[in-house]
Design goal:
With 550 residues, the chain is of the alpha/beta class. Helix content is 33%, strand content 18%. Among the domains are: 108 residues, Flavocytochrome C3, Chain A, domain 1, CATH 3.90.700.10; 95 residues, Fumarate reductase/succinate dehydrogenase flavoprotein-like, C-terminal domain (Methane Monooxygenase Hydroxylase, Chain G, domain 1). The chain has 14 helices and 20 strands. Strand 7 and strand 8 form a beta hairpin. It starts with 12 loop residues before the first strand and ends in a 9-residue tail after the last strand.
């Protein structure tokens, strides 16, 4: 058993000495999934929503492309289902995908009724964009590339008008509380103003996003450190398909600049990927060429750069012209202008980066985990919608559809009020010198990018596991009193789980590419699930039931 299986709580405490708060539903995460869940939960009782940072730092806020839904009369939910299943390369759960595409249009209508603005055509119809992997234009968007910002504005406005929702921003959820029967009954939290608190809840919903910050190159905000996955792991929840991390093909590649996302929608409007000599990168690689699924485009770029020995590729959107680019993508145009780039006249330097955590906490189609009282939705959850590779713009739709469904499942389960328990956490610590947390963090992110990134190799991943074991002995054997320390411990835990799972899957499938196992295994259509204290993964065939069934 490794150090990653030994730690139950990150901090020592005596519960009876901490302030106690009570609510019907505790939601950890303030993005699209968490806010949609909060609005549904408020119909049935009191709600606490915890956001680790300011509301404008969630992944939702940064989303550019839009929300996928079959709205056009020439489109269909069946076509959306088919495109999603193809992108998932044999690991999508059909029941989850059906739920997504069939309930998606209703969520778009709900957003409109809730006050969200969408771009519209001259006749007043909602404008629909095209993105990679989609066989039909079905991406609704706002102000070209401001969909995430407008979505959060609308959701926050709705929350402000809803009685019974209490928001805690800049509140760090450290660990889940479990009673003697293994039920999750809330969480231990830290707030810079209120300090440590225990929040008791009938239902606890994890909606805290993904773990892109485990990689050196990422489009994710700095708060995406996999905290919810790590705390669920420590509590005994199943973690599934965590080897699948989606790498977005196009993020801005300028030395010293953040890896700003360059939306898939830019290629949907006709932009193409080229190298420094103007040679097209995706020509002949896939029938959809530059609009192929993200894993295909990402590998195409990486393979081309390896052959040419270039550091990055270019996105050529000059067919739009300066005025056309600025009109369609005003946010991108403004961002690029800050670096002296005219998106419609200049080549845009791009490189793939970690973008979306495909796997996560194992749940059923209603968001139930294997632990009573614990639910999960959005990017942090693995419900089978995305399989081995997420279809573009399905993520915001997933947050909406399953944020609502998860709450309805918790209401149906009708768990009783938790009984506050008195217990003591004694954390066994190792003898360790002073740690430079920023250096530990930088080292593990670089190691993950080199060894468990876009292209993987078994020997390098084994070396990476050895590094994690070494780091874990002193970093997980320490007790910290600030979010920076807890985040570092969570990053180590998630990085270890990703590497362990990637080493276990001996094939290439979707976002998971191994040079030592380059072919897809016809018998590999199974999920890998991991649980604290178990030495090996559980293999579950696609279509098998998962989750806690009350």
């Amino acid at each position: 058993m490794s150090i990653f299986d030994e730690r139950r709580y990150l901090i020592p405490f005596r519960s009876q000495l901490l302030p106690q708060l009570f609510t019907d539903t505790l939601i950890i995460g303030g993005g699209v999934a968490g806010m949609r869940a909060a609005l549904e939960a408020a119909v049935h009782g009191n709600v606490f929503v915890l956001a680790k940072g300011p509301m404008d730092l969630s992944n939702t806020q940064w989303a550019q492309g839009g929300i996928a839904a079959a709205l056009d009369e020439d489109d269909s939910t069946e076509a959306h289902f088919r495109d999603t299943m193809i992108a998932g390369v044999g690991l999508c759960e059909p029941s989850a995908v059906r739920t997504l595409v069939e309930e998606g249009p209703g969520e778009i209508e709900w957003l409109i009724q809730s006050g969200m603005r969408f771009d519209r055509g001259q006749q007043g119809q909602v404008s629909l964009g095209l993105e990679g992997g989609h066989g039909h234009p079905r991406i609704v968007h706002t102000d070209g590339d401001m969909t995430g910002r407008e979505l959060m504005r609308a959701l926050c406005a709705a929350v402000e008008k809803t009685h019974g929702i209490r928001m805690f921003d800049r509140c760090f959820a450290i660990d889940l509380c479990t009673d003697t029967n293994g039920r999750v009954a809330g969480a231990i939290t830290w707030h810079p103003r209120y300090g440590l608190q225990v929040i008791w809840a009938r239902a606890t919903i994890l909606a805290a996003g993904g773990a892109g910050q485990v990689f050196r190159e990422t489009s994710n905000p700095r708060l995406a450190t996999g905290d919810a996955i790590a705390m669920a792991w420590r509590a005994g929840a199943m973690i599934r398909d965590i080897e699948f991390m989606q790498f977005h093909p196009t993020t801005l590649y300028i030395a010293g600049a953040p890896r700003h996302l360059i939306s898939e929608a830019v290629r949907g409007e006709g932009a193409i990927l080229v190298d420094r000599l103007g040679e097209r990168i995706m020509a002949g690689r896939h029938p959809q060429e530059d609009l192929a699924p993200r894993d295909v485009v990402t590998r195409g770029i990486v393979e081309h750069l390896a052959r040419t020995e270039d550091s990055h590729a270019f996105l050529d959107a000059r067919s739009l012209g300066s005025a056309g680019f600025a009109k369609r993508f005003p946010g991108l145009a403004q961002m690029l202008a800050g670096y002296g780039i005219d998106g419609g006249a200049d080549l845009i330097p791009v490189h793939p980066a970690a973008h979306y955590t495909v796997g996560g906490i194992e749940v059923d189609v209603d968001g139930r985990t294997n632990l009573p009282g614990l639910y999960a939705c959005g990017e942090v959850a693995s419900n089978g919608v995305h399989g081995a590779n997420r279809l573009a713009s399905n993520s915001l739709l997933e947050g909406l559809v399953f944020g609502r469904r998860t709450v309805l499942a918790a209401i149906r389960d009708s768990l009783p009020d938790p009984v506050p328990q008195q217990w003591e956490s004694r954390v066994r610590t190792s003898v360790a010198g002073e740690l430079d947390l920023s250096d530990v963090r930088s080292s593990l992110r670089s190691a993950m990018w080199r060894n468990v990134g876009i292209v993987r190799d078994g020997a390098k991943m084994r070396d990476c596991l050895d590094m994690f074991s070494f780091w874990g002995r002193y970093a997980l054997g320490s007790v910290f009193e600030t979010p920076e320390g807890w985040e570092t411990q969570n990053l180590l835990t998630v990085g270890h789980l990703m590497t362990r799972a990637a080493a276990e899957r001996r094939e290439s499938r979707g976002t998971h590419t191994r040079i030592d196992w380059p072919e897809e295994d016809p018998a590999g259509a199974f999920h890998l699930s991991w649980k604290l204290g178990e030495n090996s993964a559980r293999r579950t065939l696609v279509g098998s039931e998962v989750g806690n069934k009350p």
